[in-house]
Amino acid sequence: MHGKTVSVKKDILSANSKTAEQIRSGLDKHHVRMMNILSSPGSGKTSLIMKTINRFKDLYTIAVIEGDVASSIDAERISRLNVRAIQINTGGGCHLDANMIEKALTDLELEHLDLVFIENVGNLVCTAEFDLGAHKNVVILSIPEGDDKPYKYPAIFMEADIVLVNKIDVIPYFDFDLGMFPEVLNGINPSATVLPISAKSGEGLDDWFAWIEQTLT
Amino acid sequence: MHGKTVSVKKDILSANSKTAEQIRSGLDKHHVRMMNILSSPGSGKTSLIMKTINRFKDLYTIAVIEGDVASSIDAERISRLNVRAIQINTGGGCHLDANMIEKALTDLELEHLDLVFIENVGNLVCTAEFDLGAHKNVVILSIPEGDDKPYKYPAIFMEADIVLVNKIDVIPYFDFDLGMFPEVLNGINPSATVLPISAKSGEGLDDWFAWIEQTLT
């Protein structure tokens, strides 16, 4: 990359981190927890968020910020659950940034909220660099993508607080070594929790719900 | 995005296009065809390239340029087929650019080559903007990712000459409407060919090989 680009990028990342810190303290003031959900396209971010809403919507007030390059398919799916969903279209941008989240949060009444999910743009690369002011980074890796992804996309796995290995209902049809995976991940990120789940069949979701409850208390 | 960033980005893209044109005419002079293979992480780029090498390596001289954020797992897999594989690590960058390809091509003897495959970084967003000097853009979408991806990541599907719908061997376990998919894609890109394949079982690969042969003549 050219020197000029690198310096512009540094400026952007440093401004982004400041905004992210402001967001986090604003949320803390109102006891709102925010989770940044990250994965490749089609790994199951929306399905996971929907199952989680169904589990917790009678206990907590939840909102979702939906990031997509284009379309509002996912925000429409979420809205059908009677939960507030705010769509951000990046118009070609490969990730959300803290400014977009700050703007989206002004549309939500923080004093009446408990939990915000951010569904980031489906991308294992650029999303990793931008702190969005969330309290936790949740990375989803699905079985069909393969167990070598932490080696190939280390930055995002380094930033993860928890890695959900999704679509374990189809594990018989793919070469994914679930037994070895925690070791693969630990080589890159020794502190991340690993949970095998199926957002479709529901397997493993109780562990995920327990993890959510723990982060809320 | 800030005005400064937009203008730097425009400069980069315009310089990239010029380099890409130079690459393409250099390849044309030596009758070499180059294909840019694009997809999400884990959609089957490497598996497809390996099957294609095995089909054509006695007929054509083939080389592969492997793009990854980190690691050289894929280049090692390719090298085992006795085909020249050049690894590019972007070190955090979410796509290859024409400069990287130009540099990689200097390590290859174009006068002895017929076919070059570029395996781009696994990413449906940033890779779309950068012309690499290839003759064809091959986009792979795998069944587990879902049939709504052209709506969500339109730019890359607009740039595709062919879309390979991979992993059709597992279609019974996923909600992917293969019958409707050509219509979904045509709404965004009316001229792209759609081929359902399984790089694993081999189903549909003959059509892909025929397409390759057609582009070589």
Task: Characterize the structure shown.
The structure is a homodimer of 217-residue chains. Chain A has 217 residues and is of the alpha/beta class. Chain A has one domain: 3-Layer(aba) Sandwich (Rossmann fold). Chain A has helices spanning 3-29, 45-56, 73-79, 98-105, 149-152, 154-158, 181-188, 205-216, and strands at residues 33-38, 62-68, 84-89, 115-119, 136-142, 162-166, 193-196. In chain A, strands 3-2-4-1-5-6-7 form a 7-stranded parallel β-sheet, with helices on both faces. Chain A is globular. In chain A, 44% of the residues are buried. The A-B interface holds A 1-2, 4-5, 8, 12, 40-42, 68-71, 73, 92-94, 121-126, 129, 142, 144-146, 148-149, 151-155, 167, 169-170, 173-174 and B 1-2, 4-5, 8, 12, 40-42, 68-71, 73, 92-94, 121-126, 129, 142, 144-146, 148-149, 151-155, 167, 169-170, 173-174.
Which helices and strands, and how do they pair?
The structure is a homodimer of 217-residue chains.
Chain A: H1 3-29, E1 33-38, H2 45-56, E2 62-68, H3 73-79, E3 84-89, H4 98-105, E4 115-119, E5 136-142, H5 149-152, H6 154-158, E6 162-166, H7 181-188, E7 193-196, H8 205-216
Parallel strand pairs in A: 1-4, 1-5, 2-3, 2-4, 5-6, 6-7
Helix pairs in contact in A: 1-4
Features:
homodimer, 217 residues, alpha/beta, Rossmann fold, seven-stranded parallel beta sheet, 8 helices
